[in-house]
Structure formats: structure tokens, C-alpha cells
Amino acid sequence: MQGGDCPALPVVTAQPLPPDPHAPHPHRPWVVPTFVFLLALLLTAVLLASVTRSISARDKAAFEAEATRTADAIRERIDTTTTLLQGAAGLFAARGEVSREQFRDYVAQLGLRERYPGIQGIGYTARVGPGAAGEAVVRDGDDPPLRVWPAGPREEYHAIVFLEPLDERNQAAIGYDMFTEPTRRAAMAHARDTGAAAASGKVILVQEIDASKQAGFLIYLPVYRGGAAPRSQEERRRELQGFVYAPLRVGDLLHGVRGNGVREVDLELYDGTAQEPEALMWSTAETSSQPPAHASTRQLDVAGRPWLLVMSSRPAFEALSHWRLVPWLVVVSLAASVLLAWITLVQARARQDAEQAALERRANELALHASEERARERAQQLEELYGRQRESEQRKDEFLAVLAHELRNPLAPIRNALEILQRAPDPGLAQRSRDIAQRQLRHLVRLVDDLLDVSRISRGKIALQWQRVSAGDVLESAVETSRPLFERRRHELVVSPIDGAVEIECDPTRVAQILTNLLNNAAHYTPEGGRIEVEANADGDTVRIAVRDNGLGLSPQQLREVFELFVQVDRNAKGGGLGIGLSLAARLAELHGGRIEARSDGLGCGAEFILILPRGRPAAPPAASS
């Protein structure tokens, strides 16, 4: 509770009370103080009622906001899973027949375990007619037959053919006919008949091969022959080819969705709409004799199946409340009331003389002057903040314009190259068109990769792969990456040799990325036919790699801003860019415990960028600034 709620009490005594011709007789001086004391108590009661309502409302709003964020996070992960399944279904719709290798490559690109917690894999289950002796056999190309289990004659089989990533857990599920289990069969039938994704009820996944098991569920999306879902239910049942599906562990899925630290809330997740013990899928609530101060119940729609989410506050969350300040506020308010009554009594007996009035007027004038000065300072600070905000908005608008321009530039050559490939019979022209499209595509990928790297560094999500490598090898890799750009612009590139025995402990890919950005920056801001020099040497415990050019150069102001995001010295320079290359390089250097220095004698005098890296791995590499 901030002290700004209580200054109204002493205002009554800020100025002496003027003489009152209707004041009580001197032998009853307690009348006015008693009235003031009762009035102060009334104001205190009103204040306390307002404060308690405000605290209750704020605590409830904070909990509801956290509960909403938690529910939204769960919905988002379910929606993401459905989206991934739609992508896998699209793969079958586009190709018709998908091999095991194609399906494995597709799932590997998704990075399930790193990006989507809770998803154990993405699989494909094929629908097969009845086999001999009641056992279905599925083949994938030249692979050996895949035995379906459990054995036994059935009208149709739904064998798990693909399930990636194929680790030890998922290997245990290959060949399993999920249509034999009632809970799974109900969800598969619902997905087949509606043509939409459908979630199963609570199950124990066949992947649960360890002693510690979690409750799980599956989401199915039907795959029909010909791709699109037929209109009628009978056609959907007849044209069903199989299902793409995702098995999910509830505990892993909910990891990290319930806040962190004191903001963490307890969860109970039920399959269905009732809080039945057998329907409980996951719980983090601890047994306590005292009920939680806040609780909230939300119903979630999980691929057509209802879930009941019960959230409650934890003691650490409730400790954030300002209720503990209310007793202090009561004591302070009572003390202020007593003090106010005493001051009133003193004023009733005292006479205000002219000198005291003059002193108080002078004090008021000084206070007013000080208040005006503070107001002017605040106005100046606000103006500076507004200026920085306008500058930030302008820089953002410029960046968006440049981003749109940079992303559109490669698209026109790619489109032209595709049109030439469609119409030109000349193999040489077709090859040149493919080269143009590949070069522009690499440029587009580099822009997107740089943006993603900046985002990862800002969120602290980038991890360095430390290795001890030769500094010369890393430099040579960067030079070879940038050499095509130098050749196109007819630059003279001079690389001084470096002792092959000089080694550094670093992430060689990231250091090569730093050097490539410095080399590309030199090429972009150096006119065609210019000279670019690269010099590397060991300096004690560090390695210094300098990139010098005789290009546009930098002014003192530009030297101060050159490593800031979205800053470009000359947006009209050939080669374009988003203004993030040098900033990304500087942040990657900081992650290695190093730095980049920029030097220039002025505009038109060229520039020099020096990468300084420690030869050994720093004890605690600093986090890159966001």
C-alpha cells in the first residue's frame, strides 16, 4: 500500500484556523476537538472500506488474469498440436502415398521435443481390411511386413505405420491397432465421421514403458483418399485412408503453463465436465487445511472434447496481497485522528499572530515555487520521453518499410526465374534462372535467420556449442561464405595469413557468422572495385580479427549508433539490408565474452571493425543485451 492514500488528514492543520466568532465558550474547549475526532474516524472508516475493496478487486483481477493466461496457454498448445496434424494431413493430401523416409524427414523438421512440450510424436495409422487368420499385415515399400497387434480377426484394422521421432517409447507403439481400445475408438470414429480433429478421453499411452506413468490423450485427424473430406458421412467412412495423430502426455503438456515463482497457480485438470476422481488427468494442488483465497473453473474445448480446468491460488501468490498493510493503516489512521484532534485543541487555545502568518505564507510560497519547479522538471522529462518514443516509432516504421522492401526484392527474381523455367527450352538459360532463384532464396533465408537470431538472443534462447578450433579455419570459412559477394562487386580482398597454431574455444558457427556479417557489411558499403583487408593475430589471451575497407566511412555520430538495431549508415548503399547485421554480430561477440570495436577517420575515409575474442572459454559468459 503506497502512502499516497493518507495525505488528506494533515491538510486540516496545514494553515492555522481563523478566528471563529461562533466558537464555543473557553470553558468547553473539547467540543471542537471531539467533533474533529469523530469526523476523522468517519473518514478513516470510509478510507478503510475503499482500500479493502480495492485490495480485494486487485487481488481477484491478478488471479483471474493469471488463470486466463494459463487457460489460454493450454488452448494454444492444443491448437498448435491440431495445426501440426493438419500439416501432416496436407502432406498425405499433396503426395497421395508417403514413404517412411518422407514422413520421418517432415516430422524431423518440426523439432517436436524442443518446440512443442507434451507431444510424444506425430504418427500415421493406416486403415486395412481383414487379413488371414484375423491378422492385418502392412507394408511400406520394400520394408518387411509390419505385424498388427493385438492379434485376432476384425472387420477392419488401424495399424500404427509411422510414428516419429522413432525413439524407444514410440517404437513400443508401432503396429498397435488403436481401434481395438474403446476410448481411442470413440475418438477415431468421431474424427472419421466429422472430418475434423477429435481428442480421445483419458488413457495411458502404450509409450508409457517406464515405472512412472502419466495420464495421456490422443488427437486424431482423418486422412481420406483424394485429400479433401467427402461431404456425406457414408462417403467419409468409405473413403477413409487412415489417421494422422499425436499422442500427448498431460504432465509434459502442462509444464510451464501455470506461471512461475510467486505467480504460480495450482491446477486440477479433468476429462469431461465434472470433478470426478477417475476423470482427474493432472493435479499440482497440495493438501492444505486452509482453503485457497482464490479459485477459478474454466471449461476448455479440446478438439471437440470438453476438459474442466480448476485453478487455485498458492500461499506464495496470496502473500503478494496488500492485506497485511490494512492493520498498519488502521493504526496510522487512528493515530492521525488523535493527533488531528490534539492539534485542533491546541489551535483553539492559541492565537495566530502576524509574524507566524507571514512565516507560513513565505513557507507556502516556497512550497509553491518548489512545486512549480518539480512540475517543470516533470514536463521536461515527459517531453524527452515523448521524443524518444517518437524516435522509436519512426525507427520502427523505417524498419518495417525496409523489411517489406528487403523481403519483396528477392521475390521478383524468383518469380521471373520460375516463369523462364516454365517457358524457356534453353538448358543454359534454365540453369541461370535456377542459379538466380537459389541466390535470392539464400538471401531471403539469411534475412529471416538474422531476425530469428536477434529474437533468440533477446529472449535468452540461444545456446553456444563450444569447441576448441583453429582461428584460421573459422576465418577461412567466413571468407569463403562472403567471397561470392566480393566477386560480384569486383572487390580486392586481401587476407593476411594467421598462425595455424592459434586456437580459440568458441562456437565456430557463430563466430563465422560474426565474421561473415563484418565482411558483408564491408562489401555493401565499399564501392565496386574497392579494397577490403582482413588481418588476424593473437594478442596475449585474446585473438583480434580486423576487417578494413576504403568505403563510405563513418561520422562520429554514426560510430555511436552503428551497433544499434535497425540502424543503417546509408540505406541507399548497394546490397540493402535490415540494419541488424552489426547488432547481431556484436551480441554474438558478447555471448563469447568478447566485443567488436568500430573505427573510422570520417566520411569517405573507410572504416575498420575489430573482433576481439578471448582464446579460452569465459567462466561466466555475459548475457547479450536485449
In short:
This protein has 626 residues and is of the alpha+beta class.
Overall description:
This protein is α+β, with helices and mostly antiparallel strands. Among the domains are: about 80 residues, no CATH class; about 160 residues, CHASE domain (Beta-Lactamase, 2-Layer Sandwich), CATH 3.30.450.350; about 150 residues, 2-Layer Sandwich (Heat Shock Protein 90), CATH 3.30.565. Helix content is about 45%, strand content about 20%. The protein is built from 16 helices and 18 strands. The strands form five sheets. It has a five-stranded antiparallel β-sheet with strand order 4-1-7-6-5, sandwiched between helices. The protein has a five-stranded mixed β-sheet with strand order 13-15-16-18-17, with helices on one face. The chain has a four-stranded antiparallel β-sheet with strand order 9-8-11-10. Helix 1 runs antiparallel to helix 9, helix 12 crosses helix 16 and helix 14 packs antiparallel against helix 16. The longest helix is centred in the N-terminal third of the chain and has 65 residues. The radius of gyration is 36 Å and the shape is flat. The N terminus is likely disordered.
